[in-house]
Amino acid sequence: xxxxxxxxxxxxxxxxxxxxxxxxxxxxxxxxxxxxxxxxxxxxxxxxxxxxxxxxxxxxxxxxxxxxxxxxxxxxxxxxxxxxxxxxxxxxxxxxxxxxxxxxxxxxxxxxxxxxxxxxxxxxxxxxxxxxxxxxxxxxxxxxxxxxx
Length: 149
What we know:
- With 149 residues, this protein is α+β, with helices and mostly antiparallel strands.
- It has helices at 7-10, 53-74, 119-126, 129-141, and strands spanning 15-19, 23-27, 36-41, 78-82, 92-98.
- The chain is built from 4 helices and 5 strands.
- Strand 2 and strand 3 form a beta hairpin.
- The longest helix is centred in the middle third of the chain and has 22 residues, at 53-74.
- The radius of gyration is 15 Å and the shape is globular.
- The model has no long low-confidence stretch (mean pLDDT 93).
């Protein structure tokens, strides 16, 4: 089910990392946060409870796989998970690797900046993303329900 006017129904929402029948994982171009990913449920549902129990499990398995890849490759200070949907009421999970040096840490990425950007550290993270995303796609593809029929 798609809804006209919904940006996550009509657009990818970022650079595609993995495409499964029920969801996609994208790298979001969020300035200052080089390891910002989203798990986007393909059908237009607004709330977590709109999903059937097995779909909630599938979606959370994807969130966990993305989180684990970020932890393994980047050793962040923290992983932030969020499913707010206030601006875009289409179910999606933010999975964000956070670092003590990022502009907003320890506050939310949506809070006010606490320091300037560190382009050198951001670039070091960005240099690891290709290998990280290959691993992420491999792990996600290993789940039987994520294979295209």
